[in-house]
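Ticket #4471: structure export looks truncated?
Reporter: QA, pipeline team
Priority: medium

Steps to reproduce: submit the single chain below to the structure queue and open the exported record.
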Amino acid sequence: MALRCPACGSENIRSSLSQTLTDEIGKVFGFFKLRCKDCDHRFSHFIWDAVNSFWARCPRCYRQDLGTWSVKYYRAPTRWLVLMKLGAKRHRCEYCRHNFIDFRRAKFKYRGRGRQAGAH
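Actual output as written to the record:
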């Protein structure tokens, strides 16, 4: 289930920078500030849930519809290469196009036009 803006209903959201100490403390307890890219509305949302905590989530927009990326085409930081050797998986958010690594598996695999799920 994708996060939606409470003002306009758009799924086009991103994480918002913390503006106060209260925002920073809220992150510790799972309350993140988000911003709608369409209407610029800023709102908070409880991100943690027990059901989805075992699956990878984009750190930028918190979506779980993920693809993969290749080290052949993207330059990964050295620390990422070390973590990948230890078992971290490569993920790419298909909405915000953010590449990241996580030890958790993807819950939803992106299905592009003419591609199979999980194809590189």
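Status: closed, not a bug. The export was complete when the record was re-opened. Leaving a note from the reviewer for reference: Residues 21-28 form the longest helix (8 residues).
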